[in-house]
Design brief:
With 771 residues, this protein is α/β, with parallel strands linked by helices. Helix content is 40%, strand content 12%. α12 links the parallel β3 (264-271) and β4 (293-299). The longest helix is centred in the N-terminal third of the chain and has 33 residues, at 59-91.
Length: 771
Amino acid sequence: MAEGVLFNIAEGIIGSLQKLALEEMGLLYGVKDELKKLEKTVTKIKNVLLDAEKKKANHGVTEWLKSLEDVIYDVDDLLDEFYTEARWRQMVTGNKFSKKVRLFFSSSNQLIFRLKIGHKIKEIRETLNVIEADKRFQFDERLEEARFVSKERESHSFVRKEEIIGRDKDKREIVGLLLDPIPIENVSIISLVGIGGLGKTALAQLVFNDETVQKHFELKIWVCVSDIFELNVLVAKITSRTPGNLELDQLQNDLRKLIDGKRYLLVLDDVWNDNREKWLSLKSLLMGGARGSRILITTRSEVVVDTNKPYFLRGLEEKESWSLFKQMAFKTEQESENPSIKAIGVEIVGKCKGIPLAIRTIGRMLYSKNRANEWLAFKNNDLSKVNQEASDILPTLKLSYDILPSHLKHCFAYCSLFPKDYEIDRKTLVNLWVAQGFVKSLDQNESLEDVGYEYFLELVWRSFFQEVTYDEFGMISSCKMHDLMHDLAKSVSGMEITIVVEKEDNFSENLRHANFSIGPWLSKTIPTSLLKAHKLRTFFYISKYLYSFGDDGSKSFCNAIASNFKSLRMLSLNELCIIALPNSLRKLRHLRYLDLSGNRIKRLPKWIVRLQNLQTLDLSRCDKLVELPRDINKLFNLRHLMVVGCDRLNHMPYGLGELTCLRTLDRFVLSEDGCISRGGAGLGVLNRLNNLTGNMSIEMWNGKDMVSEANSANMKEKQSLTSLSLWWKVNTTGDVNEAENGEMLLEALQPHSNLKELSVYFFDGVKFAGS
């Protein structure tokens, strides 16, 4: 369990209960008193949670927290169910009498629902009272969580990439080995060996991108190997093919065609293989390169593969270590020259044993501390508890985790859901955090996504993420986690988060977040023990290789999910070739994030609008999709709707204009017969969608009614859009008025002045002014 998660959930529960008490709804009748008692109990528990979590080293406290955890999650689910039902009732159409009749005879009979909820509340409250009354432990109720405020916000931007310090000599020597004109054989193998955290990957990247190296080799290939050393997977990566679609024979042929007769450089990064036969099988396929070809391997173990020339990477020298530490820990050079702080800092750096990752994380921990007594306290108290070998820096990294505020702790721990070396999309990660309720905003005017991005930047700045990439507008678009940081995330998340791997079937019933990644071992069934993890909140499905379950296979797969994981907040079913969404999924009323991308769905079922908690609906690359639900306005919590790649989608529903929470709408398409048709909405539905952010594409015709609709779209007010693409559908009528209509339409769609990028396609009203 990520520390601090219960505090945040309890805080959210109290807020929900207080909000509920202010609302007038029939469902509250008869259960209001129980809800007040529940709030009182949860408040008492919340007041001691931070102290309890600090004392987790005590086995009894850990067990106490574990028993509390389950029931706190149950309260969260219960309140979510209550709110969902209440909101749905408010949306049922008809006059007051017919509405009551319809609800009475529906499965949501108000009396039955109140009795069921009232019984659950009482049962949960009694369980909480027993836990709260446990007097074995004395917890401090006065503790308040310290909210970390980073000085970094004042000093520099994340756009600046940190320099690699102290590796000039290593770089020269490795480049020399790569360019050695007298190789032993056509293809020489060099291994870069060193413990975790030394910066092997960073150094290999520095060498790989060296101008001399780039010019010397005809073919340059970078492959991240990590935990999986399977021949077909690696050959597919080298040749940029999809192993799920090809036999090994074909992959081998492709590899030979790629490298034969060419002087190539292949980097195999992060190799863990300890099976000599597997290595020899791969090596035999790579020997066809021209004389002077090189394979550079980064690894933690010298015995992973047999190499011609192992290069052992050592820790940084004292001077280089201090230089890197200064860059991380001080805002100015003047601060680093403070005699008392410098003396303590030098001692601290010495304990990092020259390991760059340790130096970076410790430096960032001390960045916000500017008094000598704070540095001394850290050295004597926190750092002195760490008794480690140079080969194990996890205890040091754990220190940087321990001082994180709780809202960042479980955001970081959640990242163990991704495989090692996985490129994490920043927007997806933030939306996942929001879906799980990890992100809280104290300012009503600040969006949860903006707050989540601040969380993300904080973790980047403190070196929890690496290999950050940026989009064309200077925003971070993706990142990776260092293997050791991934190990740390896994260790702090305990048994609550896992990646399902081949043939594994011993999952804990306490599992809450699972990554059901597809590998070459693809199974159409969910492991038996995983089906018993009824508390699951994340079912993350990473499809590495295109594979069709078939209609029956996908239906049974989805039925198993819906029957066993009713508390899901996030469900991804991407690229499973699903044709129709099974009705069983309508049970997942808690869903916040639904990823259906890359499927063959033609229409979404009508019941999809009953999933009123949905915040993210990803339909991108559903190339058979022809329409969105007409009642889409009932998904009033929807914040992100992705439909890029849905090429058959030719109109938008009217109800879209009521989704004022919407922040992502990456594609808006108008029906062929103009701005307004029987089934499609015009540009005017965009009028109130002023919270839209990021990229947006509009596809339209030059219809005569389009201009007034375009004016109604109110594009100038969408101040958070960064990129806008306007696509004109090809004019096949030959009407000369089309161009004139197009000019007026273009004028009417004028965006705000701070837009970063505007693209116009197939516009036939272009005029060139004379010089």
